[in-house]
Amino acid sequence: MSTTVVTTGTEGKTWGGGNEPLKASYGKMMMWFFIVSDALTFSGFLAAYGFSRFKFIETWPIADEVFTHVPFLHGQNLPMIYVAFMTFVLIMSSVTMVLAVDAGHHLNKAKVTLYMFLTIIGGLIFVGSQAWEWATFIKGDYGAIQTKGGNILQFVDTDGHRVALRDFVVAGENERAAHERKNGLWFVSEGALPTYTVEEVIHGLESHPNVLVRTQDINEHGHKTVLSREESLKQIKTNGRHVVEGANLHVNEYGSPLFADFFFFITGFHGFHVFSGVIINIIIFFNVILGTYEKRKSYEMVEKVGLYWHFVDLVWVFVFTFFYLV
Amino acid sequence: MAHAHKLEILRGLIKFKSNTQKIWGVLILLSIITSVEVVLGIEKPEALMGHVLGMKILNWIFIILTIAKAYYITWDFMHMRDETSSLRRMVVWTAIFLILYLVFILLQEGGYIQDVYSAGFLKKDF
Fold this sequence. Notes:
- Chain A is an alpha+beta fold.
- Chain A has helices spanning about 25-55, 65, 80-105, 110-140, 165-170, 200-205, 230-240, 255-290, 290-295, 300-325; strands at about 145, 150-155, 210-220, 225, 240-245.
- In chain A, strands 4-3-2-1-5 form a 5-stranded antiparallel sheet.
- In chain A, helix 1 (about 25-55) packs antiparallel against helix 8 (about 255-290), helix 3 runs antiparallel to helix 10 and helix 4 packs antiparallel against helix 8.
- By secondary structure, chain B is mainly alpha-helical.
């Protein structure tokens, strides 16, 4: 075998082969590169959100006025408190994760088990909170009128506090029943009809002189513009087309439908990451209990899912800023 | 797995005795930053409403605080501090460069469209 090359002349050089220049295992490095590409996906979404927001900068919903709910505290205006709680839960579960990694370095099976368990609990609390937040957002709170141009008109009292449709509109006898597949065209479906019709809202507005209309336009003080009484009646009567309650991919009582679309898409994609993170954590948790890594004398697997879990936290930090704060 | 952890943050201002202690220290730091963000987000002080480089000062503060949080999560929770500098640069600079580029083109374009909507005379094809 005299033709076999035994020396390449590159021994001792960093990239000569046969050593690990980055001092990281293959799996860990690939997790890092996956994280880079996933980070780019998320920044694509957030940058698209920024694009749409800059496009409608003068009419974009103010997040403080949208996310004001906290479970078990009905009817109180508490902007951001619950999201702050969710952020804290996620950071906390990141801490237990990194403690699990640290315990893994010391081959301490009991501690890894405990911290992995706490991480999973934190992840579940977060996903549950997100589901609750979605449900609240979809259900809506005050209701609004959509104009023929697609703008949203909301209602406030003379002090500027929001007024819900149910507070001043009386639902009449509804002559139109919702179309259902079983009693109409089977290939056509229709969503739930709003509780009130536009005529009933007009009637309610006329009989309540202290209710005013608030438009989407943001004035120079950073607040939404409130119309005068005459303007309010005129706007609703000439432009009001639909009653909107809650938010979905088509309409959004809080303002621009794009806001709702991005909310569902970005927090949904992030929630999906948290969910899969929880699943992966559970798998690793059972591997730890079964002693797989104990036999292997290395808890590097915990470190790798840890990287993914921290990344999910990292993304949330940005979603929190760009969706709720800025 | 004899990992050597670098145990100081804030350029050596705070030194920790063990890795576990550093984790709790970083948690406290992150919690403080988040609380500051939440308080500012609820209060919205009038003094920070001025515009710098096309954005409210308050929003710049939020973004800087977010990047600070991202730094500590990556460096201490994801142990980027302990990786080799070449791995660190590969991951961090690639992401930073591409994200800045993407954000720049999209925000520039969004601002332009808003400009045409509010002040321009073109209805379509702009």
